[in-house]
Each structure stands twice: as C-alpha cells, then as structure tokens.
Amino acid sequence: MSIPSTSTLNSSAITAALGAKARRFAIRTLAECDSSNSRLRDEPSPDDGRVHVLVCERQSAGRGRRGRQWLSAPGASLTFSMRWRFPPETSAPAGLSLVAGLAVARSLEGLGVEAVQLKWPNDVLVTGRKLAGILVELVGGGAAGVEAVIGIGINLRPLPEDDLPDGLAVAAVSELLASPPSRERLLAGLLLQFDLMLETYGAAGFAAFRGAWEQRNAHAGLPVRVGDDAGEILGTCLGVDDDGALCLQTDAGERRVIAGDVSLRPAP
Ligand code: BTN
Questions:
Q1: What is the pLDDT of residues 139-186, one digit of tens each?
Q2: Measuring from atom 3 of ligand 1, which residue has the nearest CA?
Q3: Does 48 share its domain with 172?
C-alpha cells in the first residue's frame, strides 16, 4: 500500500496525475502551517484564472465547523484547501457545502470505497464513522463574484483513540481499500472531481446534484435533532431542497434549516 510518509507531497506526481488539467491549478505544499483554510482565506485574492490549492502536512491549528478543532496526525491525513471563484451570476453559495461533500464522496467511490454516506451538510461517513470533514468559508463577493475557500480533511489511517474527542468514531481510507492510492493521486482525483462538479454547480446550482446527494443521505427518513447553542429542532429528515437546506417534518409542520453554524445529530 502506498499511503503514508510524513514528507510533503511530491509536486511532479500531482502534476502527472492531473494530466491535461494540471494548468488549471496552482498547488503549494507545506510541511506545516496553522490551518490551510486560514492561510488561503487571509492571502490576497489571486485572479489568474487558476484554482489555488494549499496542502499542509501538519496543521498546528486545524479548524473544523462550528469553531471546533480539526485533529490530524502527520502522515495519517490528507489536509488541504482550495480557493474557488464563482461568477457573479451563479447561485453560489447556496448548497455549496453539500456539493463539496458529494464531490469528496464521489471521488472516494471512484477509488472503490463502498457505502459512502453524507451527513448534512457535508460530513463524509462510512458505516456511521467520519471519513472526511469539510469546511467551506466564503471570502470575497460583490461584483467580482463569490469566492470560497473549501478545506478538506480525509483520514488516511486511523487516529489513536486517545486523541479523539469522546463519542467521535472515525473511519480511515487504509481500512476501506486493500490498495489505497498515493496521497498525490488521491489529491489529484479530488481536484479533478471538484473541477468537474463545480463547473456544473456554477451553471446550474445545487439542484443539479440534489438527487445524488439524497441517494447518500445518512439520515433519510430518520429522527434527527438539528440546532446550535440557541436551541434545537426535532423532526424526521425529509431530505434537502434545491438550495441544500435540510427539510424536516416536525410536530409543528415542515421546517427548513439552512446550513450554517448548526449541527445535526440522530434523535433517540
Ligand atoms: C469538520 O468536519 O468540522 C470540518 C473539518 C475540516 C478540516 C479541514 S483540514 C484542511 C482545512 N484546514 C482547516 O483548518 N480545516 C480544513
């Protein structure tokens, strides 16, 4: 198996795996940074028509959704961020988080990972365990169009259980594939999948992917609780709408929840 080493990724292997699309991306690899999302978000916006990608081997302050920490051990994860620009006329960012989750799911499925599921808005699960997390942050806007930094963390090897917060079950690529690809090929496959899907997303919005997302919905038809520190809604998960909002059947009727700083948990 070709997964880990703790060295930075090999740039020429990434370029080779991207093939004809290599020029579409500007890729930097770093041995260490605080957070690849923070770095890309805080840099001046490049406008050279390329997608800027930052891969960090070790993050000292990796960030997850809802202000949480993202834990990863060197060599045990693929952690990177991409900066995408959408034209002003697109419906971005509605549903963008969900499209990102679906792109990761499809990419992993293409490698042979089975039974990939999505937990709204964008956790990637296998048998209920988290295989990948995604953090989407909007950075620009206005006349130049919307820009988003999309950060991905994929577990390549299991993290030591002692390092995990209570109750978090994780899956890792090394357990799911007999012959995992190199990290360079995995990264290139993800970038190509994002490129393909975000082009469609830019033209047609999340609606173009709603059916594919629903097929992988880990909580379809199940009781869930959705909320933040201010409160929770209990209901049955009906699916998502064309904007990627979660639709719930509650005692008070149908409710629609927009992906933001909310989390979804199974309800008893
Ligand atoms: C989550 O599940 O809460 C989202 C996790 C996102 C983690 C990735 S790792 C690369 C990028 N840099 C960060 O600081 N976070 C994202």
A1: 976 677 789 999 999 999 987 776 666 667 899 999 999 999 999 999
A2: 64
A3: yes
Containing 15, the helix (H) or strand (E) segment is: helix 11-18
131 belongs to a structural domain: yes
121 lines ligand 1 (CB under 6 A): no
- Report if residue 4 sits inside a domain: no
| Residue 6, in any domain of the structure | no
Which residues contact residue 83 at a Cβ distance below 8 angstroms, ignoring those fewer than 6 apart?
40, 45, 46, 51, 52, 53, 139, 147, 148, 149, 150
Q: How far is the centre of ligand 1, averaged over its atoms, from the C-alpha of 50 (Å)?
A: 22
Q: How sure is the predictor about 6, in pLDDT bands with cuts at 50, 70 and 90?
A: low
Cα of 6 from ligand 1 centre, angstroms: 19
Per-residue model confidence (pLDDT) at position 3:
45
Residue nearest to atom 11 of ligand 1 (CA): 151
Give residue 260's identity as a one-letter amino acid code: G
State the total domains in the chain.
Answer: 2
Pick the closest to residue 170 from 135, 133, 216 (CA basis). Answer: 133
As a whole number, mean pLDDT of residues 239-255 equals 96
- The verdict on the CB of residue 194 being under 6 Å from ligand 1 is no
Domain around 227:
219-266
Mean pLDDT of 218-234: 91
175 Cα to the center of ligand 1, angstroms: 21
Residue bearing the CA closest to ligand 1, atom 16: 151
Please list the active-site residues.
65, 130, 265
Distance CA 120, CA 101 (A): 9
* Of 187, 214, 241, the domain-final residue: 214
Query: CB–CB of 266/226 below 8 Å?
Result: no
Q: Whose CA is nearest to atom 7 of ligand 1?
A: 153
